[in-house]
Design brief:
By secondary structure, the chain is of the alpha+beta class. Helices cover 44% and strands 12% of the residues. It folds into 2 domains: 111 residues, Phosphorylase Kinase, domain 1 (2-Layer Sandwich); 240 residues, Aminoglycoside 3'-phosphotransferase, Chain: A, domain 2 (Alpha-Beta Complex), CATH 3.90.1200. The protein binds 2-acetamido-2-deoxy-1-O-phosphono-alpha-D-glucopyranose and magnesium ion (MG). The site of 2-acetamido-2-deoxy-1-O-phosphono-alpha-D-glucopyranose has 13 residues, from loops.
């Protein structure tokens, strides 16, 4: 693989390579850190074409959004170098390179002097993560959403995710459905919850904004000096959506007491202190731009996105693990059960979560 990495890299940068490291984080694309002889570090990625059927659309979105944010940074005296991802142009003249197998590759400048966290070790940190994701979204408030292509249709349409899940149960291509009957029941008992967000978007109660849609803690770089979020990563799924998607995905990952694939479910629960910290930071970052209906729906947003993620993991388990990269047998089932434990815990704590959010609604 290193040979391929070197070959691809040479189409972007005319420098010998001194180091190649594989990055194991992320369930979709393949990632390497590459250091050139002049000491500069880069992030090379092979886009997963099985999932992103139109990589050009992905890259157009990313370039449009990052150029837009760089303009804001330039105008406000922000960190233009590190404040937005910088996709480099290959010798093909595009922000990607297509190899002889038709695979799409991209190269970003590495964000220096910053850390990518896999778990939020303090409420202070998680509050800053919330601020950064909220601020990112508020920066995009004036971005023309019509230039964005849909990289994965119906990505956070939980009702459609539920229908896809039912079809996977029905088809049962791997003969796994019987062994996970209880997990399947957990989902079907919550069928009507899957429409919570889509119904409110349809009635206009929840507006469409430009959302990131994959706001995991490890999709942000935190500045080593200031401790603040410096750069938002993984812009593959930037599309119009509800603010609940971004809030929800951050909570299910970062406000969980354990890793996304922890199998000891006694260790898996929602941390109310983390939930509060993120809410505070996120709303501050959004600078008062959310409606009361949006703020009040935040806990249900976290709930629905956690349920949706569990449904997606279980669907992939039933379909033979073709979507999310797995590192062990049954990994997607472990992830699904972990998310369902969080869902059950949020059900038990919903009143408390609503009360936390209510503190932030201006009376
Ligand atoms: C995937 O690419 P990564 O690992 O940041 C997935 C997200 C899921 C997440 C679960 C394009 O994110 O939607 O929430 O795994 N991305 C895509 O950890 O499906
Ligand atoms: Mg991703």
């Amino acid at each position: 693989m290193t040979q391929t990495v070197l070959e691809i890299f040479s189409h972007f940068i005319d420098q010998p390579v001194t180091q190649v490291e594989i990055c194991e984080i992320g369930h979709i694309n393949s990632t390497w850190f590459v250091t050139a002889a002049d000491g500069k570090k880069y992030v090379l990625q092979k886009i997963n074409k099985n999932i992103f059927k139109q990589p050009e659309v992905v890259m157009n979105n990313i370039v449009a959004v990052t150029d837009f944010i760089r303009e804001i940074l330039r105008a406000n005296g922000g960190d233009v170098e590190r404040g937005a991802l910088n996709a480099l142009i290959s010798d093909s003249g595009e922000h990607y390179l297509i190899d002889e197998d038709g695979e799409y590759w991209r190269l970003y400048d590495f964000i220096t002097d910053a850390t990518c966290y896999l778990s939020a070790d303090s409420t202070e940190l998680f509050c800053k993560v919330g601020y950064a994701f909220g601020h990112f979204q508020s920066q995009l408030a004036d971005f023309d959403a019509s230039v964005l292509g849909e990289t994965i249709p119906n990505f956070h349409n939980t009702a459609i995710r539920y229908q896809t899940f039912l079809r996977a149960v029905e088809a049962d291509v791997c003969g796994r459905a019987a062994s996970v009957a209880e997990d399947i029941r957990f989902v079907t008992e919550r069928a009507e919850k899957c429409s919570f967000i889509v119904d409110r978007i349809a009635t206009g109660e929840l507006p469409l904004r430009v959302t990131h849609n994959d706001t995991k803690l490890n999709n942000i770089m935190m500045d080593n000096t200031t401790g603040e979020g410096i750069c938002i990563l993984d812009l593959d799924t930037i599309m119009p959506g509800s603010v609940l998607y971004d809030f929800g995905d951050s909570i299910r990952f970062g406000a969980s007491s354990a890793a996304e694939d922890e199998t000891d479910l006694d260790k898996v629960f929602i941390r109310e202190d983390m939930f509060r910290a993120y809410t505070e930071g996120f709303l501050k970052g959004l600078g008062g731009s959310l409606s009361e209906a949006e703020i009040k729906a935040l806990p249900m947003g976290a709930y629905v996105i956690t349920l949706e993620t569990g449904i997606r993991f279980l669907t992939d388990y039933l379909e033979g693990d073709t979507y999310f990269r797995i590192h062990r047998e049954g990994h997607n089932l472990d992830r699904a059960r972990n998310q369902f434990k969080l869902v059950a815990d949020m059900e038990a704590k919903m009143e408390k979560l609503n009360a936390i959010v209510a503190e932030f609604v201006k009376s």
